[in-house]
Amino acid sequence: MTSYAHAPGARHRNAEQRRVPKWLPWTILAVVLLLIAAAAWIGLRALQAKTELETAQGLVGTLKTQLVTFEMDGATETLDNLKQHTSSARDLTGDPIWRVAEVFPGLGKNLTVVRELAEATDDVVVDVIAPLIGVAETIDPSSLAPVDGAINLQPLQDALPVLSGANGQMQTIVAKVKNVDSEGTISQVSAAQKQLAGLLDSVAPTLDTLDRMLAVVPGLLGADGPRNYIVMFQNNAEARALGGTALSFVGVSTDQGRITIGQALPAGLGNFDRYETSVLPIPDGAEQIYSGGAYGTFIPNVTVRPSFTTAAQLTQEMFSRKYGDVSDGVISIDPVALSYVLGATDPVTLSTGDVLDRDSLVPFLLNGIYQKYSALAQDAIYAETVDAVVDRILGGSLDPAELIKALVRGWDENRVLFYSNHEDVQAVLTELGQKGELPLSDSETDRVGVYFQENVGSKLNFYLQQKVTLAKATCRDDGRQTYRVTVDLTSTVPADAGSTLSPSILGNYEHEGLNPGAQRMVQLIYAPPGSTINSATVNGGPLALGSYHDEAYPVSRVQLLVEPGATVTISYDITAPEAGEKALEAQITPMVNPTTIEESTLDCATVPVP
């Protein structure tokens, strides 16, 4: 038997090969510990960044409240705190360890998205919010208040490039956040990306519109040369589709911020001519709706059609024919909106001794004046009221913040309207959702117009209450919805109106063969283009409808008689223009008393088969 023995040198070499270097375990352990520490570090910083961003989110709500109430000192302090938190979140997610960890599969993409969102949030605060607060400090409402009839335009002009820059930065940030790739990230991260993108999408259009709107304001105030406007005051006690009869007018001129007010001009007293035919072409179909020369022949009735564009153009044409005046635009305001404005200043006392404030102005102008004073005096007192309120505003004796709120409220309620001959201004008004125009439907909502016209020459609409109920259902095989629009008109005229109300309020009831206090109303429905007005009922009974249209709009025109203390209900069924489910909204004449709007369900069994 042969025996083999390992040579000593060979055994030594194998042992050396098997021997693990002493430093290797420690190195591996160090790497593991380093990874654990890095993970802990990243986790800790992610938690800290989350806390910072959540704190910043709460501060944004505080900042919004402060800006709305013009608490600029508090807003500046809140902004400083907000900057600290968003900057901290940016730093926490941007250190070298965090950036290295972004290269790891799975975890890395989440870290990248978190960092990009933190950067975008900080950019919004630094590049958008901070400049805007600086602008707000420069052109706060008090700086825009007239002083001796003039507004200082310089702060506004200085702010425009800052606002434009902030708007540009916002558009860049919006695009950046939209392009953040959160696909494959954990749900919390992807949800955060969607939330921030949605928030910016909701804010960016407002900022863009504000940028465009303020850019035209200096021009409106005469920065580029004098501008001339006609201010129309509507009387809702004698309703027209836009609100009320055009009762009084005032010329307003602006030049380098200085505002000059002309003498109030009543619509009556022979100040304007009557014309046999409309002074401007009549829109297709409108002549049949507004028959008997109601359209375009006499200035109190320029508001019969529910389009302020046509009302303004008719007003300008009649002014031009009578006085040779050429205006840059027309502004309309009704007594309800004027009462909002009066809430921004002290009460005014008229030469008659009447004291008017926010609460008393509407009852006085739309009722008391007709009870207390002769027909000849009424126009003069109305004009004096307008002059007194405007003088108070231009004299600077007002709360500018409250004035802005009053005008915004009036705009939202279709009680303050504006038309401009200048294309840039008109484009901004369109972006703002220009008020006082025919109802526009869109891909999500169909809109109907519900309009009222007083038809006795009275001022009885002070005593009228309105309710509009909207219902819809899909009752047809072709998938088009059926809309039901129900209008309730309730008279609060006292039963003894014949002996307690003045002739100016009662109107021409005797000539029309009506009872004293009866309100005869023309009720108009403007249905969406392409729709069909199928049927109507009055107080539950069927009503034959005429066939009318105003350009592309199907129109119903119905005359209703509302006796003192009575309620009249009229209901319309309308077939939508196309198949599919949409929301339904109503655009309604702004009356003396606000119209109640309700939604209801529609039972298809109650819909007549056309």
Walk me through this protein's architecture:
With 610 residues, the protein is α+β, with helices and mostly antiparallel strands. It has helices spanning 8-18, 23-68, 72-92, 96-101, 107-138, 141-144, 154-178, 187-220, 286-289, 308-323, 335-342, 361-372, 375-394, 400-412, 423-432, 497-500, 503-506, and strands at 227-235, 245-255, 258-261, 265-266, 329-333, 348-349, 355-356, 416-420, 445-454, 464-473, 480-491, 519-526, 532-538, 541-543, 548-550, 553-562, 567-579, 583-588, 596-601. Strands 1, 2, 3, 4, 5 and 8 form a 6-stranded mixed beta sheet that branches. The longest helix has 46 residues, at 23-68. The radius of gyration is 34 Å and the shape is globular. The chain starts with 7 loop residues before the first helix and ends in a 9-residue tail after the last strand. Mean pLDDT is 84; it is low at 1-7 and 23-44.
Poorly predicted runs are: 1-7, 23-44
Mean pLDDT: 84
Share of residues in strands: 15-25%
Main sheet summary:
6 strands, mixed
Offer a few descriptive terms.
6-stranded mixed sheet; 44% helix; alpha+beta; 610 residues; disordered N terminus
